[in-house]
Each structure stands twice: as C-alpha cells, then as structure tokens.
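DM from R.C. (forwarded with permission)

"hey, sorry to bug you on a friday — could you get me a structure for this? deadline for the figure draft is monday and I only need the backbone to look sensible"
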Amino acid sequence: MQNNSKKLLALATTSILFTIIAVSFFPADDFKADAQSANATNYKHEPFLTLTDSKFQEIPNSDNLNLTEFTLSVWFRTAQNNTEPGHIVNKGGMNVDEEGMNLNYGIWTNEENGLAGGFETAAGEDFIIVSREKYNDGKWHHGALTFNGSALFLFVDGKPIGNKLFIKETPDNTGTQPLRIGANSLNEDKFFTGDVDEIRLWNRALNMSEIENGYLENKFNPTGQVLFLNYG
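My reply, with the result:
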C-alpha cells in the first residue's frame, strides 16, 4: 500500500512539472492567439469600398428596397473619432419627422464611436439600438440589424448586442430616397469614414443561427435577399 502511494505521488508530481514546463514555453498570449485563430471567419477582406470625406455610394429607390421586415448586414472598419453619426448603410435617412422622410432601416456609428441601428415610423417614432462597446478600433467587424415585425435585434460579430421586443409599429417604408452607403439617405450629411464590404439586404428577418453562421462562415441563406454588394 505504501509503494502504491509513492507511485501515485510520483505521477502527480510529474504531471504538475509537465504543466509548469508547458505554461513556461507557451505563454498565455500564445494561447489567446490560438483561440482567436480558431474563431477566425472565412471572410476575405479585399476588395472593399473605402469612404472618406464626403464620398458615398447609393442604389436608386425601388419597391424591393422599401421594407416592413428586414435584415441588413455589412462588414465595416473604421478608426474615426466621431463627433456626429456616420451612416454606414441606410434607406430613408434622418433629420425630418414626416411621413416618407423617416428611416426605413439603417446601421451607423454614433458620437460615442459605438454602433447603432434601427428604424423610424411614419410618425417619426424611433426604434434604435445602441451598442455599449466602441468599434473605431481599426479592425473589421460585422454588423447586422433584423426586424421581424415585432422584434428588433442588432448583432456585432455574430452575437446579439441589444434588442427591442413587442414592437407594434412598422417602419416608414413610403419614402423614395435611395439606399445610401456612407451618408445620410435623406440629406448629404452624416458621412461615414472607413471601409465597408459585403453589404446584404433581405426582406425577412434572419434568425440568430443564420447571423452567427454567416459571420463565422461568410455564407448566408439567400432566401429573401434583395441586395448584395460585394465590391469585387
């Protein structure tokens, strides 16, 4: 019995020493790097659209773009320190609370350098979600906004960061403004400075699994997709 105890003690000591040696040779930062590598997406960063100063792009208005339910998704990267909202993608725009001149849907950076997204009703009532985190870190991020007729969700990098539930109102989809990338859809202001890519729009709300899988694999279910801009 005494010999068995010595053997067990020796094995335990060897295991502890091996763990200490392993940690010594592979610092915590290396383990973090491996974890980040394992979670890397299949998204390819080039080519993309770069937006600076007052540069923007727009898609002419059409019935397919005027939506009551939607998913809007975009890859974005910015290091800008914002003093006002910078519209990444939006339809309808902001500044005027009149029917036909409200935000149908949109994603933008705010004055706190976070991400915001949402819509306005025909009466100008706002349904907007704002992130707690800042995203002007010069790294690529994936943003997605979904509305299924009663629930609004904002996602960043595949994960929900906020929601508004039990919504009875509908987005103002009566406007004739273009879908605009890099500026306010209603007026030529509130410019976004940075890079954007892989802009997608659906006439339905993707579920959480579709958003997460799309972020990780960069493969989205095309059912209901009415717009796709891949810039190459």
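R.C.: lifesaver. The first strand starts at residue 49 and ends at 51.
me: no worries. Residues 1-40 have pLDDT under 50 and may be disordered.
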